[in-house]
Structure formats: C-alpha cells, structure tokens
Amino acid sequence: MATLRDAFGNVLSVFILILIGVLAFSIRLFSVIKYESVIHEFDPYFNYRVTQFLTKNGIYDFWNWFDDRTWYPLGRVIGGTVYPGLTLTAGSIWWFLNSLNIPLSVETVCVFTAPIFSAFASWATYLLTKEVKGVGAGLTAAALIAMVPSYISRSVAGSYDNEAVAIFALVFTFYLYIKTLNTGSLFYATLNALSYFYMVCSWGGYTFIINLIPMHVLLCIVTGRYSPRLYIAYAPLVILGTLLASLVPVVGFNAVLTSEHFASFLVFIIIHVVALVYYIKGVLSPKLFKVAVTLVVSIGMAVCCMVVAVLVALVASSPTKGWSGRSLSLLDPTYASKYIPIIASVSEHQPPTWPSYFMDINVLAFLVPAGIIACFLPLSDASSFVVLYIVTSVYFSGVMVRLMLVLAPAACIMSGIALSEAFDVLTRSVKLQLPELVEGTASTAEDTPSGYGSVQNEAAKSESSLEKLDDSLRERPSRKHRKKEKENVEKASSKPRKEKRLLVLPLVASAVAIFLLIMLGSFYVVHCVWAAAEAYSAPSIVLTSHSHDGLHVFDDFREAYAWLRHNTEVDDKVASWWDYGYQTTAMANRTVIVDNNTWNNTHIATVGTAMSSPEKPAWEIFNSLDVKYVLVVFGGLVGYPSDDINKFLWMVRIGGGVFPHIKEPDYLRDGQYRIDSQATPTMLNCLMYRLSYYRFVETDGKGFDRVRRTEIGKKYFKLTHFEEVFTTHHWMVRIYKLKPPKNRIRGKTKKSKSSSKSSKSSSIKSTTRRNPWH
Amino acid sequence: MAKSGQISGHISLLFILLSLFSFSVCIVLSETDTELISALVSLRDRSPSGVIHLDDHSLRRFLNPSSSRPFSIFLFFDALQLHDRSELHLPDLKQEFKLVSAAFARHHKGKPSETKVFFCTIEFKESQSTFGLFGVNSLPHVRYIGPNENPKTSEAMDQSEFARMSDGMAAFVHSKTRLEVGHIDRPPMVSKKQIMFLCLVFLLSAPFAIKKVLAGETPLHEPKVWLGFAVFVYFFSVSGAMHNIIRKMPMFIADRNDPSKLVFFYHGSGMQLGAEGFAVGFLYTIVGLMLAFVTHLLVYVKNKSVQKGFMFVAILVSFWAVKKVIYLDNWKTGYGVHAFWPSGW
Lengths: 774, 345
Fold this sequence. Notes:
The complex is a heterodimer of chains A (774) and B (345). Chain A is mainly alpha-helical and 774 residues long.
C-alpha cells in the first residue's frame, strides 16, 4: 500500500513537473504571439550573429574569429571577448535538431532558447528545493519560478541574452553543491564543477557563485558544522572549477588573479586546516589533542598569515585593489556614484525602490520571511545555504536593480518552502478535524475517543508515508552513507512525529487561511501573466501602438536594415550611434564604426563628435573613417521617444569628453535642451539636427515634432555634403550617403578646388592613417 | 620712493622701455602685488592646511578690483550656521577643500607656481557683504577668481562636481589654472600605530577565538542570532534602504505647499523617502512573520481559543498589510492589478 502511494506520488510529481515546464515555456511566448518570432533589442542581435557564424563555420573558426565588420578599422576579436556559453548552447541545439533532420533556422532556435532554459531552470529549482525541504516545497518553488516576473523580463521568447541560460546554470550549480553536501558523493562534486564551468561560460555573474559557496563553507566551519561531506563538496569545486574557468578565454587568468576569486582560495586553505584538525582529533587522545591543537593552530595561523600577506601585496599593487568597479559598487554601494559615473549612469545599475520589488517578485516579497524562518526549523547544511543565498542576493538586489534577477530564484525557493509548510499545517488541520466534525454532527451520541483515535491513525499514516517519500527521494543516490544517514534522519524525525500528531489549528480559521493563501497565489498568477503579456514582451525592434482606428505596426528598423542589405555594397561602412551597431551588423551585414560593446571610448567619441559637428567637418570625419552611409533614428513623425535627437546630448557629452572643441553649453539655450526656434545656432547646424529634420517640413507643412511637442527651429535647408538615399515608411530610420568629393569641385572657385584637392589628398593619406582624430 | 626704485630693478627690461606714466603705474602696482603675495603667503603659512581664512575687509584688500593680479584665488563659501544641515555636507566639503589645498602646496613647494594660487575660505556671519558681492545665495559654493577677473566675472564651480568631493575640486583647479594639484593625500582611517596595535590584538586573541570556535561557544553558534540577522537584512533590503543610502534621501520632507506639514510618501516610482521605505519594508516583512508564527509556533499551543484568537489577529494583520501594499503601489506607480484578457490578437 505504501509503495503504491509512493509510486503514485512520484508519478504525480513528474506529471506536475512537466506541467510546470510547459507553463514556464508557454508564458514566455506572449512576445511571439503578440508580435512575431523575432529577436529582441540590441545585445541579442549580436549573440544571434555569433551563433550564425558558429553554425556556419564551426567551433574552431568561432574560437579564432576576428570580426572586421565592427569597430572599423579596429575590428574585434570575438572568440576571446564573449562568454560563449549561450552561443554554444544554441549552436548545439541547432546542430542536434538538424542531425535529426528537423530543419529549424538558427533564428528560431535562438528565439526559443530562453523559454526552454526557463523550463530547465524551474526543474533545477525543484531539485534544489527538494534537497532543502522536500518534494512539496520543491514543486511549489518550481511553480513559482516558472512565472516570476523578474525572470520573465530576461527570458521571453526572443530575448536571446546570456541571462537566459545563466539562471538555469546558477540554480543547477547550487543544486549540485547541495546534493554533494547532502550525499558526500564525488560524482556530484565533479558534476558540480562541470556545471560551474557552464556557468562561467555563460555569464559574468559566476563570481556570485564562487563567493557564495566559500561563504557558506566558512559559515559551516565557524558554526561547527564541518563534515567530510563539506570537504568533498568544496575542495573539488575550487580546484576543478578554477582550472575549467581559466579555459574560458574571456576569463583566463582572471580566475586566479582578481580579488573576486580570492575568497575561494582563502577558504580552501582554511578548510584544509580545519580538516587536519578534525583528523588529528580523531586519531589522538583528548589530552594529546589539546597539545596538537595549539601546534596546528599556530602553524596554520602562520601559513594563513603568509598567504594573506602575499595576497595583500598582490592586491595592493593593482590600482583598483584587484576588484572590478562593479564588484566594488556592490560591496560599498556609494562607490559607483562617487567614482564611476559610467556605471552609475546606467539605469540597470540604479538601486531599486520598494515598488520594484512588488513589480518583480510580487507577493513573494511577503512570503520570504516565513521561508527564512522555516529554514531555521531545523537548520541543516542545505537550509543554511539557501538562507545565505537569499540574504546575499536580497542585499545585492538592493544595490542594483539588475541583480533582482539573482534574487528571483532565491525568493521563489523561500516562498515555496513557506507556502508548502503553511499548506502542510493548514490542510492537515482541516483534514484531521473535518471527519471529526462530520461524525460529531452525524451521531452526537458516539464516543469521541474513537473518532479521536481514527484521526490519530490517519495522521500517523499520512506522516509516515510522507516521510517514506522523503527518505526514498533523499537517500537514493548515496549508497555508501545510506544506512548511517537513514538512522540519523529517522532519529531526528521520530521525535517530531510523536508530537506532530496533535499539531492542528482551529478548523474554520485554517479554512479561511487556506482560502486567503490561495487568493494570494492567484493574485501572483494574475500579476505574472499581465507582466509577461504587457510589460516585458515588446521586442523593441517592431513597435506597435493602439489608437482609435486600430493597431499600428512600425517595422521601420527592419525595413531600413533590409534596404542597406540589398542596396549597398558588401564592404560599405555605415555610421550610426552605437545603439544600432549590433543590429546593423546582424541584420544588414554591413560594417559599422561603433557598436553596443562599448570598449573603445575614443571611437565612440569620434562618432559623437561627427554627429555634433556641422556638415563639413562631420563629412571629413566620416570620410576619414571610410564611411559611405550614415543612419539616424528619428521619432519626430510618429512620436517614438528613444530616437537619436533625445540621445543627442550623450553624443555631445561623450564627444566633448575626448574632443574638447565640442562643448555641451553650445547646444543648450539657458541650460535647456531645445530644438525649436529658440535653439542655439550650433544645435541647428549640427549634423544630427540636419539629418533628422531634413525635409521634415514637407510632411505636415509646419515641421511639428511629436516627441518634443514643438515646431522645429529651422525648417528649410539643403544638405551640402550628404544626400538622402532612403527614409523608411514612418520616417523612423533615415539613411544618408556621403556625397563624393568630386561633386564639390564642380562650379566652385579655384580656391575651393585646391582645398578640396587637399582634402582629397588627405583622404588618400587616410588609408594609411584612418582617423585624423587620433 | 627709494624702495620703489629698488624694486623696480626686479622688473623686467621690457617694462622699463614703456612710457614713463605707465612705468610709474607699474611700479605702484608691482609693489602692492609683491606685498599682497607676501601677506598671503604669511597668512597661508599660519594655517596647517594652507587655507586662508578671509573676511570682507581682507578680501577687498586682496581683490583690488582696479587691475589684474599675478595670482588667482579659490574661494570656499562657508556658513557655520549651516554646518548641522547634513544634506549640505559643508564640513566634509570644507575638509576636502583643505585636502586639495594641502595637496597643491605639497606639489608646488619651491616652484614659482607656489604663489600663483591661493585657497581661501570665507564665513557667512562675518562677511555677509562678500556673499552679496559675489551673488552667492546657495551653498556649497566654490568660486574661482582669476588674475583678470573681478567678483562679477569670476566663475563658480559646477554643482555636480561636489559629488566627486576633492577630485572634483582638483579638476576644477586644474581646468582653470592649468596647474596640477598633485596627489591628494587623505589621512588614513586608522594610523599606522593603530594598525599595528589592532594586528597585535588580533594575533593574540586569535588562539582564544579559535578555541572558542572549536568548542562551539560563540554567539555565532546560536541560530536565533542568524535568524534575526537574516530577517533584518531582508527587511532592510526590500525597504529600499540601500536606495536611500546611495541617494542620501531624507526620512521625510516638508510639503511644498504647506511647509508645516510633513510628507512621508513620495509620489512617483523613481524615488522614495526613508520613512516610506521602512513602512513598506515592515509591511512586506510582517506578513511572512505572521505566517511563520502561525505555522511553526501556534500549532504547539494547546488551548483552542488562544489559537483561534491569535489566528484571527494574524489573518487580519496579514490581510491588511497585503491590501495596504497593493493600495500604496497603485497610488505610487499607477499600476493597478488587472488580468490580461486579450480582446483579439
């Protein structure tokens, strides 16, 4: 009977898990259904292009790929500067499907990688939570993470970015760590190192793992929970993990040289000292042990001091003390705002306010404290780890809103535990008291003791079956320690079982509480579906707007990129602001000057300077960079607010940061940024203004800009050095061609001829020295 | 006059070739210049950081408006009465100003540029007319008075530079005078002796601490401490306290329309006030605590009516807290919970 129940329970859990996977996958399809199967935003386009290259040319070419389509004329070494995990994953999926004769396009695979991996992530969460608090909590946590908005925001279909696979890798690494800790098996320890390797391949956030696990180990040691299992869980991870991590080109020797990794080495030493102490303790008699302790402690201290001294010397020799700016701003939250304006200015790096938590983890914010408390009753190695995880991640999320993503799994695990424990108690109360009530009303004459006994029996039965289920699931992997651990577990559980029998709450109150908890849960579901459908699904490459006369679709970006692809030479260079670099290379397959990988500030400043200069100097700068086409994004006609005119002050600032003749105040009238008739002459003559508003007055006769809500300052003008070659349907993207220099000679005076000659000669010269601004 | 003749010897040959009138003017000016510089240097030597404290009278003396000066002045406007206004950071900024001054003095010691730049402060109570002269009506304020500038044309440091403290000021000095400020040497938080002492204490106490740890007798072995700590960190983070620390938000602000009223809740999602954050953080936390209380503590109570009473209270409090947060979120961000129901694709 019991085995049948177990089997039924197992089948049911598997079935539920499959449903959770389907839920996690399908809730992320809103973007495909509402829009289309398209890759979103900016960075994903780069990943997509890399994946295309990988599938076409193979892994070795990918590893050595020098990309000359970007950062012209510098180029970029792609193989050594990307986290390859995501690309390799999607590439393998594509290869696997193709070898099964399922001919999916690379794009389709890329679009659906993130939803697939969120299903994996929810299963990994189930495994992790099951290790901590059993199957019920695991299933609840998996259901919660399948639809947590914070994670959805980074993993909707089409959002093909590193975080999509990294969250799965993160949770799975934690699961394997806990599994090793619970079983002490070297098999899982090795798997753990491999999973860590996958995480290192996928995302820079791997430093969170390599600091959190040492912290937990240290915590266990300090609180006297050292065990050989802890050693097996930790030591192989550090050695294997570090070796594997340094295989990833983008990490390389950073895995041993930067301070982010030092904590793990320090703890590695400490755990060896402690292991030695425990070993000696086992060998020696208590008296001898005391002598030995002093000896070992002093030697250990000496070794530690030496290592610390070496580390301090190493760290002190580097200017940032070996920490990257982002890590420092996590440790000292005020650091970034003081010293690194670039980090502080990015909206993802802002500290969140309380509504962000309500938006991103919603009602989980209410449940987490209960989960924390449940983890302390009783405190085990595994539950102390998840407590540490939630505490660190919630702190980090408080510093940077972006790290809400790391908090989300922890919040789901905690809430899963809390909900499961609460339902456990409440449903038990109802279940055990309801028959009593029914029987009581049916026959008041009957003895209470018998009813009471039946309740007891029932309770005992359900308890024991639950425990069996727990035991069987927990014990299976560790054959070696099975017996020992089982004894422990039974010893531990036999006591509460006796007490638990009568642990019930009042019937009506429990029923009300269950009802309210279910209400809370449905509120969460409603919110998540709304967030997935409305808030986080817009691909930003295709825009839609609802107006009184129906749905409008703005597909101008792809229109423009397709035009470039079909109407320009393969080797033509296209200049635009860096936001559109990845998209241009991926969709138009043309060389760009700067892109979203903003590694070279001077280069970006050169483009910024060109955009902020009058036509002639701008033409000279672009010509020196071999640019043929200039692309600007203009939202004034349809009211698309994130266009180039709104980003223009950043171009001025960044340009002025390197080339001081560009001064921000020249573009501002009394400190105000404006493009109407009050605008400064510098503003009205700069290239960005002219390219954006050229012929704009022809649209409505007045030149009314619907983003800035004003009529533009200069309406009728001609371009001297650029010619318009393409403007998209809604004027959102405008492409201009640089006029060839010979056009300027015609009909001009002798003087200008000679000057143009000199500029021509300089352009010839510029083939050797491309950029005169360097 | 004999003295002036002596000094005129120091003046370059070029000046002597100029007309007699301008020559005599030059003599008079250069005399006051050298005097002024020596007066400034002696004033500077008196203060340890090299910052000169000026008042209305002395400032007028040094800023003789009639002509150019061979030096420039960086003037820090201070007001003792505002030192207790923590959001202005006046004492900190003054300290930073002193650091810049000291760094400049160290860097240019013995060079001719030593007397090109002077760092001065002026206090509001003592020298109100100077504040009026420069048109300073808000603090903090640092002003650069170049060799050819008068109070009207002098330039104020950009307000945003104050965020970078001494680095911002040094950049300002550099941009105006083209003189390097040099390495800004901050006094370390703890002196070398203190570090040595701390190390010694640590080394001596380490064996005892390790013994305690091995024996398992520290407060760290008490799970309740960890529990409290964990819940506190959670409360602290979800209340957005880090936001308040980084942005230096006050606990509450005065109402713009009615200054006697206090505003505790800020309308708009980008910002929050201190008290607001803690209130909502409390609401976030209390529900979980109630749930844990019911699930893990109340079940052990034998008395049914006590259980009923407590459960009633817990449910009521939780319900109220959740409702309040939803209401506040709706009020603050305008997001009302509604289901997604497509009318058509």
